[in-house]
Specification:
By secondary structure, the chain is an alpha/beta fold. The protein is built from 3 helices and 7 strands, in the order H-H-E-E-H-E-E-E-E-E. Strands 1, 2, 3, 4, 5, 6 and 7 form a 7-stranded mixed beta sheet that branches. A hairpin with a 2-residue loop joins strand 1 (48-55) and strand 2.
């Protein structure tokens, strides 16, 4: 079909850059009350439209935000833990873009999903660490879903002392 977009039509670096700016302005620089409203919705399993992407083959494509914290370890997952992980992840993303570092993109072609593994949001509470990564899904085009996902930190060998973890 001529109108169908494939993952090869999408400039993922552009999408990650735009999403980073949108998250930065919406959660870090924006009103805290609005950020808390969006957090509450995504924490309860909703997918929330946070922007419309217009770049390359993505014309008027909704960017939806979702959250998967099923692998978050420890008690008390809430707004503060989320914000600490998000702030850490966005900081790593901005640094990677400025330094033109490899984003370590892991693609799953079976379901049109991409995980950005090199830009973790690491948060530490006491001895417990948690890792947040960005997962982009293009399976419901034209909708692009950005799912912020917590992963078990034991899966990542790069997480150790001096890793830049933010305290929650």
């Amino acid at each position: 079909m001529a109108d169908e977009q494939t993952e090869t039509d999408i400039d993922l670096i552009q999408v990650v850059g735009a999403a980073t700016e949108i998250l930065q302005s919406g959660f870090i620089a924006g009103p805290k009350a609005r950020a808390k409203q969006v957090f509450k919705k995504i924490k309860h399993g909703d997918s929330v439209k946070i922007a419309t992407l217009n770049m390359g083959t993505l014309s008027n494509a909704p960017l939806n935000l979702a959250l998967d914290y099923s692998e978050f370890i420890g008690p008390g997952f809430g707004f503060d833990s989320f914000m600490a992980a998000l702030t850490s992840m966005l900081g790593h993303t901005e640094t990677a873009f400025k330094q033109k570092k490899d984003l370590n993109i892991l693609a799953n072609e079976d379901n049109n999903e991409v995980v950005i593994a090199a830009l973790p949001g690491i948060v530490q509470r006491g001895e417990q660490r948690n890792v947040m990564l960005m997962n982009y899904s293009f399976s419901q085009m034209p909708i692009v879903e950005l799912k912020l996902m917590f992963f078990d930190p034991d899966q990542f060998s790069f997480i150790g002392e001096g890793n830049g973890a933010d305290k929650a």
